[in-house]
Amino acid sequence: MTLRLAFMGTPDFAARSLAEVTAAGHEIVRVYSQPPRRRGRGQSEQKTPVHQLADILGIPVETPKSFKAPEVIADFKALNLDVALVVAYGQILTQEALDAPRLGCLNLHGSLLPRWRGAAPIQRAIMAGDEMTGVQVMQMEAGLDTGPILLSETLAISDTDTASTLHDRMADIGALMWPRALGALERESLIAQPQSEDGATYAKKITPEEARIDWTRSATDLSCHIRGLSPFPGAWFELDNDKGPVRIKVLMATPEAGSAEPGTTLDDGLLVACGSGALRITRLQRQGKGPMDAAHYLRGTPLPVGTRIA
Fold first, then answer.
1. pLDDT band at 1, cuts 50/70/90?
2. How many CA atoms lie within 13 A of 195 on its CB side?
3. For the chain, N or C: smaller number of CB within 10 Å?
């Protein structure tokens, strides 16, 4: 049985899935993505990674501002789909939209549900110090990531993983899961496993305020906090200079032994005291500059023992 598919996604994470589904020989009759946005210094309008790939593949693309609009829903229904695949699309689908394809809508989610339902599961898993996470294909329901699980892969989170490295691994694993899921769907052999509500947590969006480093926390906690926000939006602190405070993102830091007033440098190599232990900052990004190793930064901005950072 050949399935009639639509694909709904926006960022690079989703583009990898679109590429794999197409390479496996499945026909996608329509792609939906977020509208183009103005980006960069020139503020030129740029299509999303999924939109760009769909153009290369010759697949028609729609970019509705809202998937709740009646005309959008009517057009979606008129496609007579067997199933829609959803990967980081960025819009809420109503029950009417979820019911439009004959077999409903399937979503690829980056956690082991019910842990980390919501918008930022990759970042939240690292920030919380989780040792394991996963990628799952689920049947979508109107609730936030509450649908039954159809396919699952687990992977370990190392103490050097950042949001970026874990994102890339999960994107590759998730993309390879789609041909398996669609093959089982064609054979009518997918088995849905309802989610438990035990241990459910929610991965709310990251706010700029919570990205600020609180040096009274333990070095271990802050290492997870920093890696979970690296490279974007970036955990940050402020350093005073002659022109006022400068914001500095910390992209990587390693826990070490050390004790002093939290937020105080313990040597001239950016070892900073925390509420418990200390953090060796190894990679950072000054406001308005590109990422750099801490040693390179310190050659231009020495921070002697006893420097206070906020």
1. low
2. 27
3. N
